[in-house]
Write a structure and sequence with these properties.
It is a single chain. The protein has 366 residues and is α/β, with parallel strands linked by helices. It is 30% helix and 23% strand. It is built from 10 helices and 15 strands. The strands form 3 sheets. Strands 1, 2, 3, 4, 5, 9 and 10 form a 7-stranded mixed beta sheet that branches. Strands 12-11-15-13-14 form a 5-stranded mixed beta sheet. GO terms for molecular function: GTP binding; GTPase activity. Residues 287-362 form the TGS domain. Residues 60-287 form the OBG-type G domain.
């Protein structure tokens, strides 16, 4: 690991004084080394250290990420029944602490990760294990100290970016398909602004992708975007909500500006302010919906909801009930916002809405 870290520093130094064509190659090498750094070394075993191998449970997982002692553990204790150790000094949480947030019939797993420190992407401290756990999440809650706004956020974003976590971004609009023969076919849908065919060719060759088809649809795509597509197995695109704690320690003017920033919520765990707002916003960002089922001749069961993603179909609902249900599916009746009339008879492709009631009819197989 030390050798990889030294190589990373050497490449970063070279990048500061190099030309653009060679710069792309250096970025590619840097991405490969960082991916290697996060892979378990020989004899590392199956887990990432005590307390880090937490089974994913519930309808979604949210990772609480932040520097030590910014309020993650306090927040977890207030919104779940879990008591993560709380203290005013750094490195209180030494293992990943799971808790369950119950909201609108859904169970959302909150994972309180040990405080990230600078250099986590280089394997310092337990940064590697923290980041690996964060990658398994459906959403990241970046908890920040409102009195240290700029430096903390920039540092955390840089650390997560370095290990392949892309916050609040979509995958690059670049098509790449490896082939067995035929060389490289590189096409730009529009004249590129940030790279050219030579640059793309050199990077692909450096990755030993010599036979492939590439279509760059985004004229503003960069070398970094191309590397992300090549390294797709080491990239994770995750929604992030920035939560600023300790708002009782800043001025009202500063707080007002902070609260207006995109993807931002403010709170004070000390004074119990804004905590429910954070929970509500998490639900909105996860885009989960509740579906209720009914049986023939009975009222809908509103005591227990099926939780599915927004834009899910009847087929997804069938899968949540039982993986073989769609094999005998005949039709479904739907009551609710997605139905044109009450009830509407629909097929597997019908898109359901929040709090729809669904009755599924199966074809009998002899």
């Amino acid at each position: 690991m030390v050798n990889i870290t030294e190589k990373i520093k050497e490449i970063e130094d070279e990048m500061r004084k190099t030309q653009k064509y060679h710069l792309g190659l250096l970025k590619g090498k840097l991405a490969r080394l960082r991916a290697q750094l996060l892979e378990p070394g020989p004899g590392a075993g199956g887990g990432g250290g005590a307390g880090f191998d937490v089974s994913k449970s519930g309808d979604a997982r949210i990772a609480l990420v932040g520097f030590p002692s910014v309020g993650k553990s306090t927040f977890l204790s207030k919104v779940t029944r879990t008591k993560s150790e709380v203290a005013s000094y750094a490195f209180t949480t030494l293992t990943a602490i799971p808790g369950v947030l119950e909201y609108g019939g859904a169970e959302i797993q909150l994972l309180d990760l040990p405080g990230i420190i600078e250099g986590a992407s280089e394997g310092k401290g337990r940064g590697r294990q923290v980041i690996s756990a964060a990658k398994t999440s459906d959403m990241i809650l970046m908890v920040l100290d409102a009195t240290k706004k700029a430096e903390q956020r920039a540092q955390l974003e840089a650390e997560l970016e370095a290990v392949g976590i892309r916050l609040n971004r979509e995958p690059p609009n670049i098509y790449l398909k490896a082939k067995k023969a035929g060389g490289m076919k590189i096409t730009f849908q529009n004249p590129p602004k940030n790279m050219d065919e030579k640059m793309v060719f050199n990077i692909l060759r450096d990755y030993k992708i010599l036979n492939c088809e590439v279509l760059v649809r985004d004229e503003y795509a960069t070398v970094d975007d191309l590397i992300d597509v090549i390294m797709k197995d080491h990239r994770k695109y995750i929604k992030c909500l920035y939560v600023y704690n300790k708002i009782d320690s800043v001025s009202l003017d500063f707080l007002d500006k902070l609260a207006r920033e995109p993807q931002t919520v403010v709170m004070s765990c000390e004074l119990d302010l804004g905590i429910q707002d954070v929970v509500d916003r998490c639900w909105e960002e996860l885009k989960l919906i509740r579906i209720y089922t009914k049986r023939k001749g009975t009222d809908p069961d509103f005591s227990e909801a099926l939780i599915v993603r927004s834009n899910s179909t009847i087929e997804d609902v069938c899968d949540r009930i039982h993986r073989t249900l769609k094999d005998t599916f005949k039709y479904a009746l739907v009551w609710g916002a997605s139905a044109r009339h009450i009830p509407q008879r629909v097929g597997l492709g019908h898109v359901v809405a929040d709090e729809d009631v669904v009755y599924i009819v199966s074809a009998w197989k002899a």
